[in-house]
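Researcher: I've got a protein sequence and the SMILES for pyridoxal-5'-phosphate. Could you write out the 3D structure of the bound complex as structure tokens? I'd like something to compare against our soaking experiments later this week.
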Amino acid sequence: MVDLKGQYEGIKSEVNNSITEVLESSTFINGPHVHAFQKELEDYLGVKHVIPCANGTDALQICMMGLGLKPGDEVITADFTFAATVEVIALLNLTPVLVDVEPDTFNIDPKAIEKAITPKTKAIVPVHLFGQCANMDAIMELAEKHNLYVIEDNAQAIGASHTFENGEKKKAGTIGHVASTSFFPSKNLGCYGDGGAIFTDDDDLAHTIRGMVNHGMYKRYHHDVVGVNSRLDSIQAGVLRAKLPNLDSYNRSRRNAAEKYSKAFEGQSNIVVPKFSNCEMGPCEDCSCHVFHQYTLRILNEKRDALVQHLNDKGVPCGVYYPIPLHSQKAYRDDRYNEANFPVTNQLVKEVISLPMHTELDDEQIEFITNLVINFVNG
Ligand SMILES: *Cc1c(COP(=O)(O)O)cnc(C)c1O
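Model: Sure. Here is the predicted complex with pyridoxal-5'-phosphate in place.
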């Protein structure tokens, strides 16, 4: 699905130099590389505070801790996402409220959010799934109207941006009150182990969170709040510093590959290609409306599972993200949920297939893959 080796070959000297610097400095925790990366990412995103941490799941959890969410508070998120999003809500004894998504963008449906809001609702967690921002116009409006926090799960969309209806453009992760991201190796900005970060423009919240990631310490050995231990290590920060300057060009490569995939699937009645919101397919100024963490098709003629098998047999990797709605997962089942409220997710889990997507895909590979898919789906 990803070609991390090929990508490494292209930045080998930068990465090796960066790691060597960390080794020579022997500051493996909270060293100068971590601070430098933090500053560089703040500049890239145009956000006041980046707080690095150990992974994207921690980042989400710490966002919720930082906002002071309490047991019993309801947190609305998408039924169609990676489990980490709902996991941390449950872990903090908050009440997860899963809602349906939109069929064309796979992102949380603002109409479903609105229906789910109660007096106990405290936050909305939109996940910018597969590299494209959720409908942040509608979500921010709802949040303002009902006085809710917005925590963006930006693990899949770093470098993406959202253009608001009034023309204003903001980077994913800088729109809500606070955001989390992951530097898991296969993410658009991945390190060579685990890593994550939290973003916010709120000075007080940033201060609270900086202490929380470090055992609740604001002054050495004074523990003011219950915190966690969640750090980005210096070697990972070194890798990320070498990769960050390439993020936009990596995202452009993904976008180019996505355009070629979609062109090849034009006119196929059983294959639905991913939709870009806020943006037309074709050359654009910065290609940041969708950064294609995944390129995900819907196969309409019930051949999805057979197609997965066929591609595997031919040695083409593919993935099903995600095969089970979160509300149907054993850990998150609840009598509060009504199947009738999840028509889209229940359908998508049977139809979606993600094709190989990375920065090193070439035309020949894309042609080979698209021919296999088209011939099989029509066969
Ligand atoms: C990857 C991912 C996470 C978790 O990130 P980790 O670094 O693996 O903990 C959270 N949410 C979404 C949507 C993700 O894709």
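Model: The two ends are 24 Å apart (CA to CA). The chain has two domains: 4-99+108-245, 248-377.
Researcher: Great, I'll pass this along to the crystallography team.
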